[in-house]
Specification:
This protein is mainly beta. It contains four helices and 33 strands. The strands form eight sheets. It has an eight-stranded mixed beta sheet. A five-stranded mixed beta sheet has the order 3-21-20-19-18. The protein has a five-stranded mixed beta sheet with strand order 5-6-7-8-12, with no helix packed on it.
């Protein structure tokens, strides 16, 4: 009995020590720390490549310069960039154009991106290759108008803004850090991601959903993405973010990539896990300009605009599934607002532990060595620890992890 009490006290002491540890919590990372429960954003990954699945060539007459991609109401939506009309195109997931909708009351100086919240669609008119624009704006459209199939015209509201840190508007063209082609809607804000031609980094700016006058967008964080960001997408269920971009290999040749961002703290998306996926080059992809995510998944679509130079590469639509890069991740993010919190009990335990408000995959690791010892699908049956020796274990489920003490 005395030995058992000592064993229990030892386990609890070790557990209290481990619970305070921070480090890389993703088992797929090369620097995974089994003893870490708090993710400090330090995870590093091997070079990763992924081949997109080609869905179809898009219409070169209609969508040669498509930029931005959005998925809602079981359709994809896209736009053409500067020099084109103020049209939004609805296409099916096979790439067929279903209809075009005219946006009245606005201009298309250089439309580059799309995002949405529950009630509105937003168009980013903030393309700025020259670095000289002082008329940056975001166009706001009511979704209810857009989704009425009887409407071929909707009204747009122009919201003007400027960057707080830009004082020089002389450019030069494609050699400055104040271009932008990507933004997402998160909570009560829109987050813009800069396209830094000069230093190949990205800055994140925040603006509200609505304002009057000219709003001053303040930069809140930055990250070295080693390339040019051309679009972004956000999954409001799992809080995953993807950044699409490309980088030069030489004159006129470039490769495309996607950064996956997850397990970050609120308001600081670059302090969590950041994994770069190489997805191919311009000869097979074209110029990648749009990305979208399906809700509560790592699946989605990428679109590219036409390349017309020595050879012509038509605009294209691709699909992807990045689930394999997230499925083994240990995440400790907070639950989505409105969802019940996930709890693990009893802890410590002699036999079974149960997971409240969760059904799905789980993995059990030894906390000290990080060895995967058991995995299954949780359906309220409990996780049976009786076959394992007393000690500390890491129970990982989607977007949460628990340190378990077996006594």
């Amino acid at each position: 009995m005395e030995k058992k009490i000592i064993s229990v006290i030892s386990c609890i002491f070790i557990a209290n020590y481990l619970l305070g540890q921070s480090g890389c919590t993703d088992p797929q990372a090369i620097n995974f720390s089994p003893s870490a429960i708090d993710n400090d954003g330090s995870c590093l990954y091997e070079t990763t490549a992924f081949t997109l699945e080609n869905v179809a060539d898009l219409s070169p007459e209609t969508l040669a310069e498509n930029s931005g991609l959005l998925l809602f109401n079981q359709s994809l939506w896209t736009i053409n960039d500067g020099g084109n009309g103020t049209l939004i195109y609805e296409i099916d997931t096979l790439g067929n154009v279903l209809r075009d909708v005219f946006v009245e009351g606005v201009n298309n100086v250089d439309w580059e991106a799309l995002t949405q919240n529950e009630s509105h669609l937003f168009i980013g008119d903030f393309g700025n290759n020259s670095g000289s624009r002082q008329d940056l704006s975001i166009i706001k459209i009511n979704k209810s108008e857009l989704l009425n199939n009887l409407n071929d015209t909707v009204s747009g509201q122009t919201l003007s803004f400027k960057y707080s840190d830009q004082v020089d508007f002389s450019g030069p063209s494609n050699a400055h850090n104040y271009d932008c082609e990507a933004f997402v809607s998160m909570g009560d804000s829109l987050y813009l991601f800069s396209k830094n031609w000069q230093n190949q980094e990205v800055r994140k700016y925040a603006v509200p959903m609505d304002w009057e006058g000219v709003y001053t967008a303040i930069v809140s964080e930055s990250y070295d993405v080693d390339g040019l960001i051309t679009d972004a997408a956000f999954d409001p269920i799992d809080s995953n973010i993807v950044l699409l971009g490309y980088y030069d290999l030489g004159p006129g040749i470039f490769n495309s990539f996607v950064w996956i961002l997850w397990d970050y703290s609120a308001g600081n998306i670059f302090n969590g896990n950041k994994r770069r996926i190489e997805i191919g080059n311009m000869l097979t992809l074209g110029q990648t300009e749009g990305i979208s995510l399906r809700a509560s998944s790592a699946q989605g679509y990428v679109s590219s605009e036409q390349i017309s130079s020595v050879i012509t590469i038509p605009p294209k639509l691709f699909t992807f599934d990045f689930e394999q890069f997230l499925s083994s991740s240990t995440v400790t993010s907070q639950g989505t607002q409105g969802q019940a919190s996930i709890q693990c009990y009893p802890n410590p335990s002699q036999s079974k532990v149960f997971i409240r408000n969760y059904k799905g995959k789980f993995q059990l690791y030894t906390a000290l060595s990080g060895k995967l010892i058991y995995e299954d699908i949780y359906q309220n049956q409990g996780v049976d620890l009786s076959a394992f020796p007393s000690g500390i274990y890491l129970l990982k489920i989607s977007h949460k992890s628990f340190k378990i003490v077996k006594i």
